[in-house]
Amino acid sequence: MAVQTLPPGPQAARNILQIIQLMRQFQADLLGFTSKNFAHYGGIWKIEAGKETQYMISDPDLIQEVTVKQADKFHKSADYVDPDRGLARFLGSGLLTNDGEFWKRQRKLVAPAFHTKRIEAYAQTMVEATQAMLNNWKGKHTLDIDDEMMRGTLQIVVKTLFNVDISAEATRIGDAMTALQHMVGSNSVIETFLPLWIPTPQRARSKKAVSDLDEIVYRLIGEWRKKGEDNGDLMSMLLLARDDEGSGMSDKQVRDEAVTLFLAGHDTTANTLNWTWFMLAQNAEVEAKLHHEIDTVLEGRLPTLADLRRLPYAEMVIKESMRLFPPAYFFGRVAIEDVQLGGYTVAKGTSIGISAYAAHRDPRWWNEPERFQPERFAPENAENIRKYSYIPFGAGPRVCIGNSFAMMEAHLMLVMIAQRYQLRLSPGQVVKPDPLLTMKPKGGLHMLLQERNVSRQLPVDSYQLDAMAVGD
Ligand code: HEM
What we know:
This protein has helices at residues 16-28, 30-41, 60-69, 78-81, 88-91, 100-110, 116-120, 123-137, 145-162, 170-185, 189-193, 201-227, 234-240, 251-264, 267-280, 284-298, 312-324, 356-360, 379-382, 403-420, 465-468; strands spanning 44-49, 52-57, 74-76, 142-144, 330-335, 339-341, 344-346, 351-355, 421-425, 433-435, 439-441, 446-451. It is of the alpha+beta class and 472 residues long. It has a single domain, classed as CATH 1.10.630.10. It has a 5-stranded mixed beta sheet, sandwiched between helices. It has a 3-stranded antiparallel beta sheet with strand order 4-12-9. A two-stranded antiparallel ribbon has the order 6-7. The longest helix has 27 residues, at 201-227. It is globular. It starts with 15 loop residues before the first helix and ends with a helix. Mean pLDDT is 87; it is low at 456-472. The protein binds protoporphyrin IX containing FE. Residues 76, 95-96, 107, 157, 260-261, 264-265, 268-269, 272, 327-328, 331, 392-394, 398, 400-402, 405-406 line the site of protoporphyrin IX containing FE. Protoporphyrin IX containing FE binds at residues 76, 95-96, 107, 157, 260-261, 264-265, 268-269, 272, 327-328, 331, 392-394, 398, 400-402, 405-406.
């Protein structure tokens, strides 16, 4: 049989009208459009628009090839690194939007802030920030939970990594982040084709967002430089770091890393929690088991880091929520040389879209994939999960640097909130995923707060995960 050089895929869009039509399809229902094609063509297919070809993959073996085995043959895609139209417009050359030797150097520099020992010290700050958020909820009956999760996780990343309290500026930073999210994820036909020098309302909003962020971050850098002390936080590490020639990072590079961590470090965790509340509100049995675990282990007190290993069901709930709604649902690469992949030749310059969303819902690897079933991640079941069919944090050298940080944060926040409140969807609210840079609930997540009675003290011996596990 002759070797095919291109995988199958929908009809190529050759002229401008066809390209616009294709973009509209993407824009209208990105998840539906890609899922339909994955179901039809399998774990690798292509999309052609004009001279551009993009491969889409969800097959675990191919994900492993691209992110691990042949990782050195790929760079991040233009969505990240293009200085005019990619994420780099806003983040500059921070960790997410960098490649090659420079990325390696920066990753080495930032990594110590995420070592296990270091992260453990952040638990107390995470608990305090969540407690402050819950204090603000007193007397309220409905809230946009998306707003709350975004604000809470932003406070945490800024306080833990940069050792500053941004309560005063949280709204400005939060608004700026939201504007950037919309700009990056919009895929809008107009934004794509209109020359960059033409101002549009969206461009004006993103320009303001960047200037707000710059003003805040450069001021913080100025204050740190003046003090010049090593406070043990990430900002001190970035400012004091020296390369082999003895030169340090410019203010611009420090700014780029800081803004990258603001963005990458809060929105993803907030969305993990959003989808967890959404699923809990519709799965009473799972919610009851979660409450039982929390009440029995914590007996009404605040959690500590040491408690987390005794709250395994809560962690399983988070993992299952990230399976159905991976915040980083799609991430891209570009081949920097010709590569063999799944029997096809990926020509140099071709983009590859890796769909965590499709891999996580593939019936070949997941039994009843649409069902919310945290027990999939119980230790006895987790070992049967197909490798690389579950990639909420990516894989290989570019794997999320904040993986453990995020899991600890989501775990602490989930148990603290579920200990105090039961959240229900506001009547009439239809929740739909909005696949922007990360996957968000479209229009926010409006929920009713029902205070739980946490004074009930349960003997800790009554805690037994086995007794709580539900069979299929
Ligand atoms: C549940 C929360 C999170 C999810 C689902 C998530 C997901 C991801 C994924 C999938 C990637 C890899 C993208 C790719 O390969 O192209 C990534 C990279 C990254 N993440 Fe996260 N992330 C989360 C939380 C965090 C946190 C809390 C931080 C920092 C405080 C963070 C910082 C980063 C950075 C800097 C990178 C780029 C790493 C590199 O390329 O060297 N993330 N994240």
